[in-house]
Design a protein that fits this description.
Elements (H helix, E strand, L loop, with lengths): L1 H9 L10 E4 L7 E5 L7 E2 L6 E4 L6 E4 L9 E2 L3 E3 L7 E4 L1
Antiparallel strand pairs: 1-2, 1-4, 3-8, 4-7, 5-6, 5-8
């Protein structure tokens, strides 16, 4: 009975899980710097401190750019990726 009570404090309800797409500035992913609830496909600036992202729900790909206006070479990163801070300046999420 004591063990069951201990397990209940560790488990979190499913509604407490992150949703959408989140960019983080720390690893493990604990400090979010950008959160998008749904994909828009629009060019969006990426904070220079971002070091990775997770597409928790509703996203299939994040395309990163080294320019501020989403031009030039595209890097398809999927929905889970880490990278050096400052490597990318903008992104489009689908």
């Amino acid at each position: 009975m004591v063990m069951a009570a201990g397990l209940a404090t560790v488990a979190a309800p499913a509604s407490a899980q992150p949703t959408g797409l989140a960019f983080y500035s720390s690893f493990p992913f604990t400090t979010p710097v950008v959160h998008l609830p749904t994909p828009t496909g629009e060019c969006t600036p990426l904070p220079a401190t971002a070091i990775g992202h997770v597409g928790w729900s509703g996203f299939t790909n994040v395309v990163m750019y080294r320019t501020a206006d989403c031009t030039g070479y595209e890097t398809n990163t999927g929905t889970l990726r880490t990278y050096d801070a400052g490597r990318f300046q903008s992104f489009r999420a689908f």
